């Protein structure tokens, strides 16, 4: 390819873009990946890649006003997604210029990759854009320079979510059962406290001796269980129920003999 002619055509395309802001650009994600692979990680970087073996094809079409809009739409939604699946695809531009002029720019990583795509692209155009005229001008050749601004085409870095560690769940403590309280055996032996006149206050054979407590001998008074012969004063003996007499049968009246 003639470098002077390629440079002149590139300037013409750049001027067309500045006059009309109707530019459809494909493969920006691919270019961004190539820039990142080359080491341009920052969106502020201006990248110049090693374009050895890159291959570009530029075609210029003269369309009518009735077919321009439909052609742009079909190229954007039909051909472009197909090109982006092809091996070696880098960039695809569709530039609209005044007077219904449409220019397409395809860039591949090698001529071999472009040639492998050419047949499928031609078939797609014949099926979906049968009224598309032959290009008025076609320029093909090696890419000798390529530059891009990451600030325009590189996606922003992904935001890494902050992972908040989960708080450990503390299982509630099992309620502790209160210790069993042993049933206290009442003290009724010698020396145990008692109250006078209360039944079973002392063990059998013992009495509630109130003189041991230096108190009066009264029912209900404080005393101490002791043997009856050891009680220095009067012992209060709990009352006992009187014995129950057996029932007495009524006297029997002898029968009077009948005369």
Secondary structure blueprint with pairings:
Blueprint: H1 3-19, E1 23-26, H2 28-37, E2 46-48, E3 55-62, H3 65-83, E4 89-97, E5 101-108, H4 111-128, E6 137-142, E7 147-149, H5 150-153, E8 193-195, E9 206-209, E10 222-227, E11 235-236
Antiparallel strand pairs: 1-4, 2-7, 3-5, 3-6, 4-5, 8-10, 9-10, 9-11
Helix pairs in contact: 3-4
If you had to describe this structure to a student in words, what would you say it looks like?
The protein is α+β, with helices and mostly antiparallel strands. The chain folds into 2 domains: 3-153, Alpha-Beta Plaits, CATH 3.30.70.100; 193-236, no CATH class. It contains 5 helices and 11 strands, in the order H-E-H-E-E-H-E-E-H-E-E-H-E-E-E-E. The strands form 3 sheets. The protein has a 5-stranded antiparallel β-sheet, sandwiched between helices. A hairpin with a 3-residue loop joins strand 4 and strand 5 (101-108). The chain starts with a helix and ends in a 23-residue tail after the last strand. The model is unreliable at 1-30 and 32-44 (pLDDT under 50).
Specify the CATH architecture of the largest domain.
2-Layer Sandwich
**Helix/strand/pairing class, anyone?**
alpha+beta
- Indicate the overall shape: rod-shaped
Beta-strand content bin: 15-25%
Number of strands: 11
- Strand ordering within the main sheet: 1-4-5-3-6
Please tell me how large the radius of gyration is: 59 Å
Number of helices: 5
Helicity, as a percent range:
25-40%
- Summed up, the domain count is 2
CATH topology grouping of the largest domain: Alpha-Beta Plaits
Q: How far is it from the N-terminal to the C-terminal residue, by CA?
A: 177 Å
CATH class of the largest domain: Alpha Beta
Mean pLDDT: 74
